[in-house]
Amino acid sequence: MQPSEDPMIVLDGVGKTYPDGTVAVQELDLAVPRGQVVCLVGPSGCGKSTTLKMVNRLIEPTHGTITIDGRDVTRVDPVELRRHIGYVIQQVGLFPHQTIRTNVATVPSLLGWDRQKAVARAEELLALVGLDPSSYGDRYPHQLSGGERQRVGVARALAADPPVLLMDEPFGAVDPINRGNLQDEFLRLQRELHKTVLLVTHDIDEAVKMGDRVAVFAPGGRLVQYADPAELLGRPADDFVAQFVGASRGLRRLAVTPIRRDDLEPAAPGAATAETVSLDSSLDDALAALMRQDSDVLGVTEHGEVVGVLTPRTVHAALRRSVSESDGSASTRPA
Description:
Elements: E1 7-17, E2 23-33, E3 37-41, H1 48-55, E4 63-68, E5 71-72, H2 78-83, E6 85-89, H3 100-104, H4 106-110, H5 115-128, H6 133-136, H7 146-158, E7 164-168, H8 176-193, E8 196-201, H9 204-210, E9 213-218, E10 222-227, H10 229-234, H11 239-245, H12 249-256, E11 276-278, H13 283-292, E12 298-302, E13 305-310, H14 312-332
Parallel strand pairs: 3-8, 3-9, 6-7, 7-8, 11-12
Antiparallel strand pairs: 1-2, 1-4, 4-5, 9-10, 12-13
Helix pairs in contact: 5-7, 7-8, 13-14
């Protein structure tokens, strides 16, 4: 089993074999830390969605155990189980003849909430995902764009305040611009709500952006690496992971490498730069800011005060340092 300080979801020796002998998932050990986003990524047919569906028992595992907050899911009524797990899919699955407000209130209503409380919760969640309930509450799904429907799907999944959220290609059906906006919006929500999230995607860029940890699956339902994004990009476990992550993983690493104080050069006394980034930004944020301005010096701030500057040379040096540190830790890692 993968180590975790405080696992919310634990899969221990979980497998799924179909009657025709097809192995969808084999001997999967995975611990999902409480309050984190874990992305399941890999090529089509590698068992990602099957794994997700075994957690809420849309698919029954052939063997192994799955626990949520220490409770064996196979000992819980599956319908009751699903009412306490948020579930977001690519096709959204909204009820077409119900208003958006009623769609979002569905699970609270099934749980016996009175109508006034369920409606109030629906309106609260619509506002939280950026849809004004006074404008969207009485509309129907066909009157919304794909991105708006996806937001409603997230709101509905959160309506009963479930501790666990399962997401299966949740942003895959929208255009790239809306997809990026939806990803950003969900990350904003996650910083506020701290749900435990399992998210399935085939897109390594999405996995690196969204996941606190990433689980890479190979064909045949085999887990080949489970790591945080920086480790995954800097130290692929084998040739399959290296190929799947791609030759551009050094560039992707910029997005998951934070700026450190020792990356900075001293700022000239009284000097001002056209643009700044905060010390908790990534190297990718810094490089993007440098490219937006004429100057090749970027101020870095902490609590609103400039604490140093970055240049293209120091960004490159910081990236090389990050990769070197990963390579060095790999060489000293015990066998």
